Amino acid sequence: MSDILQVKLNNGVVMPQLGLGVLKMSDGDDVRKAVICALREGYRSIDTAKAYGNETGVGQAIKDSGIPRKEIFLTTKLWNRDQGYESTLQAFQQSLERLDSEYVDLYLIHWPGKDNYKNSWRAMEKLYNDGLIRAIGVSNFQAHHLDDLLGSSTVVPVVNQIELHPYLTQEELRSYCSSHDIRVEAWSPLGQGALLQDQTLQGLAKKHQRSVAQIILRWDIQNGVIAIPKSANPERIRENMSLCDFSIDAEDMKSIDNLDRNQRTGPDPDVFF
Ligand code: NAD
Fold it and tell me: Which has fewest Cβ within 10 Å: 182, 228, 269, 270?
């Protein structure tokens, strides 16, 4: 089993720094097999969402794994059309039922949307205070969304899950989050696979005798970023978790930083409603 790197969130809850993302895995056997494989390989964090349509399979896999629920860090997300106070309470309850769990470790607002995230956040604060969620956070929030939210909330989000990889290093937003004790979590850490062809990264992979995916994920780990690469392939699941037996020196870290092109693979949060 691989070592599990962990980070402490601003409310004291400990979260694995590497987890399995399950976007585009169909509910049922596909997601069940991948999650069980990851848990066997030592993963203890799974990132799903209502919008992925596979919460039921994730919950089933956790049960079938035989690993005690409390040893697994489970994240799910509030979908855009469920934003609002009452609808958030309702959507959360439905997620719990699909996940077949009494609680969620981390619940995120999936996208800021236009103007309803403060009402959604109030509902999430209630669920948090009621003990149904161990930590609450946001996803795809820009600094201006966070400024606005922090101005009217009592709980500071523990994480902001954003698109982040060597072509979109998000330095400004990372530094904003760090100054507010909000941990950054990288979605599409491998740029959905596109980064694996990058020549600089391939050169570093050769130098370190590791795969390009491992170089990128190690860069995240050394930056204090949480990463949730997606794979359904047992070898890649294992590979993505094997990050503790090498390190990247400052010069090579810098050359990865320098690949930034401010290039998104997903939507711009300011215009995705
Ligand atoms: P990713 O960057 O994790 O890339 C996944 C692709 O890379 C897949 O095609 C996979 O087969 C391939 N891959 C994985 N490991 C590999 C390896 N070792 N070698 C070669 N190829 C490998 O992309 P993603 O799935 O978009 O993002 C990861 C997770 O982030 C998602 O599953 C989801 O949980 C989360 N996510 C969140 C949001 C959000 O809005 N909050 C948006 C997108 C994704």
Answer: 270
Query: Ligand 1: which of 168, 230, 242 to mutate, most ligand atoms within 8 Å of CB?
Result: 230
Asked if residue 228 has its Cβ within 6 Å of ligand 1, the reply is yes
Q: Ligand 1: does its nearest atom lie under 6 Å from the Cβ of 189?
A: yes
Ligand 1 pocket check for 47: Cβ under 6 Å: yes
* Closest ligand 1 atom to 191 CA: 2
Q: Tell me the pTM.
A: 0.98
Stretch 10-21: mean pLDDT: 98
Q: Which residues belong to the active site?
A: 52
d(C-alpha 15, C-alpha 197), whole Å? 30
Q: Is 252 in the pocket of ligand 1 (CB under 6 A)?
A: no
Ligand 1 atom closest to the Cα of residue 49 is: 34
Closest among 193, 266, 180 to 229, alpha carbons compared: 193
Q: How far is the CA of 151 from the centre of ligand 1 (A)?
A: 33
pLDDT digit string, tens, across residues 218-247: 999 999 999 999 999 999 999 999 999 999
Query: Do 183 and 226 contact (CB within 8 A), yes or no?
Result: yes
Cα 242 to middle of ligand 1, angstroms = 17
